Amino acid sequence: MDRLSKLLRHPRILQTLPDEERSYVLARVKFRLAFRSDLLALEWDGEFAHFRRLYAEAYRYTELGQAVIWVAELVDAGLIGQLFVHLKSDRRELADGRTSAYIYGFRIRPAYQSKGIGTKLLQITENDLVQKGFKFVNLNVGQDNNRARQLYERLGYRVIGTDPGRWSYYDQHGRRQDVNEPAWRLQKEL
What local confidence, expressed as pLDDT, does residue 1 receive? Predict the structure, then answer.
């Protein structure tokens, strides 16, 4: 096992790597569509176990051709990024199944942020949407998440409105969870 492979087993060390080694890490990231067998790994060692039912439902939508789930997988570290896309949604202003799609659940493990992985994952997703014939992509970002908003704006997204951010889901124990996270609605023309 080479030196870098050993370092990758310790994500905190990644933050201290020189630029050329970080580039090497990015080259070792595989961006791919999620498999059913990835669902447990999407929970990131229990951190997102409360979304277990949401992940399973999203995967069912992929089987129906109404959604896509992209992951970033690093050799020796597993899944380090995830991004969900509704191609068609009941909320047609978000994803109408023809011209506009909706990105959600986009996250990169903290130790791997600011390494270009999120940017690459978004670019791959956008290219896939273009191939599918979509013209616009929408997403919501929490009004208190300035760092993510700056990333999106740097990549060509623009604020087109707000969203109250009220939604609910059932956690892994079957309990309803109500969420209130006011958001900015952003859009990018592809």
Answer: 43
Q: Express each pLDDT in 153-179 by its tens digit.
A: 999 999 999 999 999 999 999 999 999
Determine the straight-line distance between the first and last CA of the chain, rounded to whole angstroms: 41
SS3 content of the chain, % helix, strand, coil (to 5): 35, 35, 30
- How many C-beta atoms lie closer than 10 Å to residue 95's C-beta? 25
Phi, psi (deg, nearest 5) at residue 154: -60, -30
In which band, very low, low, confident or very high, does the pLDDT at 27 lie, cut at 50, 70 and 90? confident
Instruction: Delineate the domains of the chain, giving CATH numbers in brackets.
Output: 3-189 (3.40.630.30)
Measure the CA–CA gap between 146 and 172, rounded to whole angstroms.
30
Max CA-CA distance within the chain? 50
Contacts of 130 (CB under 8 A, 6+ apart): 190
Helices (H), the chain: 3-8, 11-14, 19-27, 52-63, 117-131, 146-154
The stretch 85-92 carries a mean pLDDT of: 96
